[in-house]
């Protein structure tokens, strides 16, 4: 099912999008759609809704590209934040969210991976290996924020942890990733 | 530098990348980045790590999503060549319409001329046919005339042959008997060819009724020999060939019943002459 994806350097991609070049649109989608879809579908837990949100995210990124400032961050960071915010807005508008049960939240974080979405997109590095490197107490915070769209304040409330601890564990998780990928 | 390290360790940069800061906090981070470039490097590393993490947990969307995305975008389209093509097309279309108008008119005119010509030709053809029929009938008339004249010529030649060769043809004149004193006729006789001919134009006999015919006899050694019957009308001419005979003493004609008799009726003897 996997196509030959177009991959170009980030600065070329940015120039292409500014020119409204079709090649750039294909590259943008091919380079980031899987990662973005992974974020969206974990937030909304609904395939159809996730597909709609993916469309919205990429079309919005393309049409309002003027508002992207390359000096303030990477293109992927910008798009992933658009995606996460749209997904959270969608959930809140439909009142999908339920903060009452912490166990339920933790289960939901990984529900999508326990169901049909087991395909792992990596360059020979398995998720299990990564999961083993991350401390569970760090990973849950990263995933709640990254894949569920929680703010660090919300995580602090839900997990009954001091805000500082949440921030430290988040940093610890990302440091592990840094050393893992670099 | 200790302050910067503490700033990094606080985890605010991760929250910045994850979009978890208020606008004020975010502006603070951006101001700090301008002052301390190493913060930008740190942020870049955090972004990279999260990008890699996202890729690991990435989920391929359905292929239809890609097409849907690409078809919903507006790419730069150059419209000028199309406009130019339109401008070129219009006059040529008008030209072709005008051409078809003329072509149609020409076709109608040609059709009318053709119809007129066909009617005329048909008329002429009929006239020609009538002329041919008339010519054929006159031709036939001429042919039969030529045929008739030819026959007459043949007869006249025979006359000449008979009258110009007295040594060949002996011309015998038969004179009227007391029964018909005015009657007379001529018979030509060729002894070698055993030919007997009556000159019809010389006949001067009383006209017989419808039930009787004149019969010619040859008298040989006192015996009458039948030479055949002949018709007589004043309009006829030419030579009539009778039955053959080689030796004749005299010729005689009697009026007999139609078809002739075996022996002559002597009381009806009309003309007679010695050969």
Describe the protein:
Chain A: One of its GO terms (molecular function) is DNA binding. The complex is a heterodimer of chains A (182) and B (275). Chain A has 182 residues and is mainly α. Helix content of chain A is 69%, strand content 0%. Chain A has 2 domains: 1-97, Rna Polymerase Sigma Factor, Chain: A, CATH 1.10.1740; 99-182, Winged helix-like DNA-binding domain superfamily/Winged helix DNA-binding domain (Arc Repressor Mutant, subunit A). Chain A has 9 helices and no strands. The model of chain A is unreliable at 98-107 and 116-124 (pLDDT under 50). Among the domains of chain B are: 2-58, no CATH class; 169-274, Sandwich (Immunoglobulin-like). Chain B has an 8-stranded antiparallel β-sheet with strand order 5-4-7-8-1-2-3-6, covered by helices on one side. At the A-B interface, helix 2, helix 3, helix 4, helix 7 and helix 9 of A face helix 2, helix 4 and helix 5 of B.
What would the average pLDDT of chain A be, to the nearest integer? 81
Radius of gyration of chain A in whole Å, from Cα? 17 Å
Extended strand count of chain B: 8
Strand order of the largest sheet of chain B: 5-4-7-8-1-2-3-6
Shape of chain A: globular
Give me the CATH architecture of the domain at 169-274 in chain B, please.
Sandwich
**The CATH topology of the domain at 169-274 in chain B is what?**
Immunoglobulin-like
The number of distinct helices of chain B, counting runs of at least 4 residues, comes to: 6
Q: Quaternary arrangement of the chains shown? A: heterodimer
Content of β-strand of chain A: under 5%
Count of spatially separate domains of chain A: 2
CATH-scheme architecture of the largest domain in chain A = Orthogonal Bundle
CATH class designation of the largest domain in chain A: Mainly Alpha
Would you list the SSEs of chain A in sequence order as H and E? HHHHHHHHH
GO molecular function, one term (chain A): DNA binding
Organism (chain A): Arcticibacter svalbardensis MN12-7
Protein name (chain A): RNA polymerase sigma factor
Domain RNA polymerase sigma factor 70 region 4 type (chain A): 127-173
């Amino acid at each position: 099912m996997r196509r030959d994806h177009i991959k170009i350097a980030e600065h070329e991609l940015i120039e292409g999008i500014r020119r409204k070049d079709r090649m750039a649109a294909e590259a943008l989608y091919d380079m980031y759609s899987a990662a973005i879809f992974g974020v969206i579908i974990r937030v909304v837990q609904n395939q159809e809704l996730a597909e709609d949100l993916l469309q919205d995210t990429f079309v919005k990124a393309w049409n309002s590209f003027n508002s992207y400032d390359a000096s303030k961050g990477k293109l992927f960071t910008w798009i992933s934040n658009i995606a996460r915010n749209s997904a959270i807005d969608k959930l809140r508008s439909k009142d999908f969210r339920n903060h009452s049960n912490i166990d339920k939240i933790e289960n939901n974080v990984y529900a999508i991976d326990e169901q049909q979405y087991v395909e792992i997109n990596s360059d020979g590095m398995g998720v299990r290996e990564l999961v083993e490197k991350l401390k569970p107490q760090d990973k849950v915070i990263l995933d709640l924020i990254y894949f569920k769209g929680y703010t660090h304040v919300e995580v602090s409330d839900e997990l009954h942890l001091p805000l500082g601890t949440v921030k430290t564990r988040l940093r610890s998780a990302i440091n592990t990733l840094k050393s893992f990928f670099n | 530098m200790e302050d910067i390290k503490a700033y990094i360790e606080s985890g605010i940069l991760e929250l910045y990348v994850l979009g978890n800061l208020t606008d004020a906090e975010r502006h603070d981070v951006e101001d700090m980045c301008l002052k301390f470039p190493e913060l930008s490097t740190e942020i870049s590393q955090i972004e990279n790590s999260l990008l890699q993490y996202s890729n690991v947990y990435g989920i391929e969307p359905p292929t239809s999503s890609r097409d849907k995305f690409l078809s919903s975008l507006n790419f730069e389209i150059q419209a000028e060549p199309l406009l130019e093509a339109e401008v070129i097309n219009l006059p040529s279309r008008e030209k072709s319409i005008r051409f078809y108008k003329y072509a149609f008119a020409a076709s109608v005119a040609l059709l009318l001329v053709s119809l007129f010509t066909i009617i005329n030709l048909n008329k002429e053809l009929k006239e020609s046919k009538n002329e041919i029929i008339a010519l054929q009938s006159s031709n036939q008339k001429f042919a039969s005339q030529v045929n008739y004249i030819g026959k007459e010529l043949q007869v006249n030649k025979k006359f000449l042959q008979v009258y110009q060769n007295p040594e060949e043809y002996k011309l015998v004149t038969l004179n009227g008997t007391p029964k018909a004193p005015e009657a007379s006729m001529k018979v030509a006789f060729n002894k070698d060819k055993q030919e007997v001919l009556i000159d019809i134009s010389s006949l001067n006999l009383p006209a017989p009724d419808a039930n009787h015919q004149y019969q010619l006899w040859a008298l040989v050694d006192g015996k009458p020999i039948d030479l055949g019957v002949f018709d007589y009308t004043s309009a006829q001419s030419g030579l009539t060939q009778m039955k053959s005979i080689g030796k004749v003493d005299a010729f005689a004609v009697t009026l007999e019943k139609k078809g002739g008799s075996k022996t002559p009726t002597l009381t009806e003897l009309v003309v007679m002459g010695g050969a």
